[in-house]
């Protein structure tokens, strides 16, 4: 079970990398690509949490959540300030 | 004593089953999202088309988290040591926080989609002609 979850978690990490690359190429938005990748990396973190709890896994999942919140806050701020998309991380191109 | 051990083993089995169900939901959601990211990237080359995919993935993650929270609650029935209870509390806190933030993000993105004039449940990749407009 633990090995299976380990492989599933690894697959999610790879899926995050691939999805991030696809979004980056198609949308040309760094923030959107990062958010897509972080969604899948969060899935990997949640899968790892399904293993017997270890403090390392807990901290890893908490770190991913913190990064997600930071990215979301940065995206919201660049939207409200109306800054040019690509210069500020692609908020405008993300809304096309 | 035998009854107590039997109860402990039964709850342990239930915890494993519920936790495996949660992990399965999360994994399936992640793989479905990956396939849809690729399809949307190839067919509908607009950044807005990725938002429904992320919304669907968020819903899968929330559902998986609910299963995992259910297993945490079950586990409280068989956590004899204080250290185990502390670990359980930390896991449950992180999962509850995650659940809250994910639900908030889903609501926010849904509202943004509605403001942009697109119903949130429509997947551009599956819409006729592959476009929402």
Low-confidence spans of chain A: 83-96
Cα Rg of chain B: 20 Å
Content-based structural category of chain B: mainly alpha
Largest interface (CB < 8 Å): A-B, 40 and 41 residues
Number of helices of chain A: 4
- Going by helix content, strand content and strand pairing, the class of chain A is mainly alpha
Average of the residue pLDDT scores of chain A: 75
Query: Strand share of the residues of chain A?
Result: under 5%
> What is the quaternary state of this protein?
heterodimer
Poorly predicted runs of chain B: 122-133
Give the arrangement of secondary structure elements.
The complex is a heterodimer of chains A (96) and B (133).
Chain A: H1 2-27, H2 30-49, H3 55-81, H4 91-94
Helix pairs in contact in A: 1-2, 2-3
Chain B: H1 2-43, H2 51-75, H3 82-115
Helix pairs in contact in B: 1-2, 2-3
Quick overview:
The complex is a heterodimer of chains A (96) and B (133). Chain A is mostly helical. Helices cover 80% and strands 0% of the residues of chain A.
């Amino acid at each position: 079970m633990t090995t299976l979850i380990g492989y599933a978690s690894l697959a999610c990490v790879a899926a995050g990398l691939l999805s991030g690359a696809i979004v980056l190429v198609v949308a040309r938005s760094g923030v959107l690509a990062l958010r897509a990748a972080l969604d899948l990396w969060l899935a990997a973190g949640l899968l790892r949490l399904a293993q017997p709890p270890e403090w390392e896994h807990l901290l890893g999942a908490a770190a991913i959540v913190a990064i997600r919140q930071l990215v979301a806050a940065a995206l919201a701020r660049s939207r409200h300030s109306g800054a040019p998309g690509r210069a500020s991380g692609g908020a405008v191109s993300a809304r096309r | 004593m035998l009854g107590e051990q039997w109860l402990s083993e039964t709850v342990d089995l239930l915890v494993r089953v519920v936790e495996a169900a949660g992990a399965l939901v999360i994994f399936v959601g992640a793989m479905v999202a990956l396939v849809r990211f690729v399809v949307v990237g190839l067919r509908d080359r607009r950044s807005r088309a990725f938002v429904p995919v992320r919304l669907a993935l968020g819903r899968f993650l929330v559902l998986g988290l609910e299963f995992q929270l259910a297993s945490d609650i079950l586990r409280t029935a068989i956590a004899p040591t204080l250290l185990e209870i502390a670990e359980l509390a930390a896991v449950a806190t992180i999962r509850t926080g995650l659940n809250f933030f994910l639900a908030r993000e889903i609501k926010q993105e849904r509202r943004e989609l509605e403001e942009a004039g697109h119903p949130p449940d429509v997947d551009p990749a599956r819409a006729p002609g592959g476009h929402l407009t």
